[in-house]
UniProtKB/TrEMBL annotation, chains A, B:
This protein's name: tRNA pseudouridine synthase A
Entry EC number(s): 5.4.99.12
Subunit structure: Homodimer.
Residues forming the catalytic site: 47 (nucleophile)
Broad class of enzyme this protein falls into: isomerase
Keyword field: Isomerase, tRNA processing
Gene3D superfamilies from the UniProt entry: Pseudouridine synthase I, catalytic domain, C-terminal subdomain, Pseudouridine synthase I, catalytic domain, N-terminal subdomain
Domain of life where this protein originates: Bacteria
Gene: truA
Length: 252, 252
């Protein structure tokens, strides 16, 4: 299933006792509808406050409900900030996280003095002047296969921190709004939010684009920029076919 | 002051005891900052759940705070769903409601099977196929000076129900999203939501565009369409200079 949510009022994706989570809400609703004891596995465990347009989940059921009826049934059963956009039948050994070939995230900043109240839940308000060309140059240094230790939370227990970034695109979807879209084969804990924080430092002139290769080389979380807050981050899509260079969405 | 708000969690504009309202929140915040007993007057009393991009309010103060500092001071002091975009000094006899020459409202519908979770707070979900050309034709019959009794809540105590609509524009800002923008010298209670409900009936093919003049003529609330829910309605702007025909925003 392809799932979209406004993460503002969820305590993240992963089920936790006594907390409102995306996984918990989906499991309760699907269990209620099917009468089965449903467990849901997501492609990525988004943090508290992070949103999704195209999170992917898998679960098993013997329900006789036809595939195409699920989105509308769930639109009625789920809370207003969580929707199921699409349903597909997959082999029993399909795994939403392990089988993913690449993912795309987008981090959006509202740089106006006063933030737009209609998009405020999905953008981080940062009233500063950003040099987009400097940010693009810095972003291009992140594309490729690197050890991203400097761009991951020091708390992460993962040991292999080599990942491939297929694209890092900086755009201005509206005047004063800056979007950082990253596409890669995997992302470490807080990686997109630290990349965004580092690119913002570059855009403000506090860091040179040429410093990015050195920061990667240092493998030291202390060298990169701040971890920006969750509200600007959206999990855009998860793909299960290998990355192709010509795919236009990655850009650079 | 020009004020924008996400009306979802407000019990409308007008102050009411024990309810979270826009007027009440502004008055409390301005009174706290100035140490004065502030009363706020708005250009229009939007209903519970209705939003604003350009509501205008006036209030009196002897505060020494410079005009241009108010938006940022208030961005910190106000809740996240209410912002002040602009501040202007006006003559003591200025009245936000009585001096308004024209207003613009926009009603937005999301016609997808599953609504977009990111814009859901500001659009009414109506999964039907709408014929835009029919809606445009119907809308054109509403433009002009008419008695809008058929398009106002029967509960309204107002006796003079003649208003002038300068424009009624139907657009598709995105595939599957339909926006109805109306501009006029004044609006009766529920008028925009009843116009939207009637145009939806036309778009669904339940009503002919040619029926609009007859509905206006009948001066009977029972003849027009349903009052659509508040979430799709936004007060776009309020203007204090007379309407000019060439103003492009009205369209038709």
């Amino acid at each position: 299933m392809t799932v979209a949510y406004d993460g503002t009022d969820f305590f993240g994706f992963q089920r936790q006792p006594w907390q409102r989570t995306v996984q918990g809400t989906l499991e309760e609703t699907l269990s209620r509808i099917t009468g089965e004891n449903v467990t849901v596995t997501g492609a990525g465990r988004t943090d508290a406050g992070v949103h999704a347009r195209g999170q992917v989940i898998h679960w098993e059921t013997n329900s006789p409900i036809p595939l195409e009826r699920w989105p509308v049934i769930l639109d009625r059963a789920l809370p207003r900030d969580l929707t199921v956009l699409d349903t597909e039948e997959v082999p029993l050994d399909f795994h939403a996280r392990k089988d993913a070939c690449w993912k795309q995230y987008c981090y959006t900043l509202d740089t106006h003095k006063i933030p737009d109240v209609f998009t405020r839940r999905f953008r981080t308000h940062l009233p500063v002047l950003l040099d987009i060309d400097r940010m693009k140059e810095a972003g291009s240094h992140l594309v490729g296969t690197h050890d991203f230790t400097s761009f991951s939370s020091a708390k992460s227990p993962v040991t292999d921190r080599v990942r491939t970034l297929y694209g890092c695109r900086i755009t201005e979807p509206e005047d004063g709004v800056v979007a950082i879209t990253v596409t890669g084969n995997g992302f470490l804990y807080n990686m997109v939010r630290i990349i965004a924080g580092t690119l913002v430092q570059v855009g403000k002139g506090e860091l040179s684009p040429a410093a990015i290769p050195e920061i990667l080389e240092a493998k030291d979380r202390g060298r990169a920029g701040k971890t920006l807050p969750p509200e600007g981050l959206v999990m855009v899509k998860v793909c299960y076919t290998p990355w192709k260079e010509e795919t236009s969405e990655a850009g650079s």
